[in-house]
Every structure is written in C-alpha cells, then in structure tokens.
Design goal:
It is a single chain. 29% of the residues lie in helices and 21% in strands. The chain has three helices and six strands, in the order βαααβββββ. The radius of gyration is 17 Å and the shape is globular. By secondary structure, it is an alpha+beta fold. A hairpin with a 2-residue loop joins strand 2 and strand 3.
Length: 137
C-alpha cells in the first residue's frame, strides 16, 4: 500500500475534471504532472484572496485565512490558522500487480495500484505544528 496527497482522479469534482481534461488536451493526452491539480487549487485560492483584499500583502494573507471555497477544482477548501489546507484528503492505494517496480510513475494506476480508500487525517495528527503556540512533545 502507498498514499498520495489529495483526491484521486475519479473523486475530483466537476470543475477539477474539466480542468484535468483541458490540461490533457494541452499535453496531448499525457498524464498531468504530480501536484498540478493542487497547484491549480492554490492559484484559485490565491486569486480569490487577492480579489477580496485591499492589495497589500497582509490583506491578501488575511483573506487567504478567511477564505472558504465551496466548489474549487479540488472541492471545498479553507486554510487553518497555520496555513495548511482543510480538508487535506489522502488517497490510499493497494498494489495489485508486479507493475509496481517502475520508479517515479506519474499515476498510481501506472504502478499496478487500485484505490483502496480516501482518508482525511485530523489536522493535529502530528501533535505539533510549526505555527502552533505550544511546543513539540
């Protein structure tokens, strides 16, 4: 088993599927690079925060932390006090064939894997966050 940050292709909302199809047309059908969809979601959030801001960096930062996207390219999105995305789903894949010997595949399916489940770990899983007020254990 292995994990990949983010939603699997088949669970991406309509806006994300449309973007993925447009990107595939631009790349002539090749797989989309690793975290391109997360980068698109980040760009979407940043542009929205800029539009709501007064143009200063601090205002953009404040707007990002207040942002609540309901229908972004990867679904709903907001940021916690430390600036991490919420929710932060993780796809769990189960390897089913010997095809898993390829190094650095572009998609889990290329590793002979099938989606087992999607989990959303709690934001405090590590017990400490670099922006948190409390110190690590």
């Amino acid at each position: 088993m292995f994990t990949v940050a983010g939603l699997p292709e088949e669970r991406t909302p309509r806006a994300g599927r449309s973007l993925r199809q447009a990107l595939r047309r631009q790349t002539h059908g090749r797989p989309i690079a690793g975290y391109a969809m997360q980068a698109a979601a980040a760009a979407e959030a940043l542009l929205e925060a800029i539009a709501r801001s007064d143009g200063t960096r601090s205002s953009v930062t404040n707007e990002l932390l207040r942002l609540r996207l309901r229908d972004g390219v990867l679904g709903p999105l907001r940021f916690d006090a430390g600036g991490d995305p919420v929710p932060a789903p993780v796809a769990v894949y189960r390897v089913t064939t010997q095809a898993a010997t390829r190094r650095f595949p572009r998609r889990p399916q290329d590793q002979g894997a099938v989606l087992d489940r999607v989990v959303t770990p709690p934001t405090d899983l590590a017990g400490w966050h670099p922006h948190a007020r409390r110190k690590p254990p």
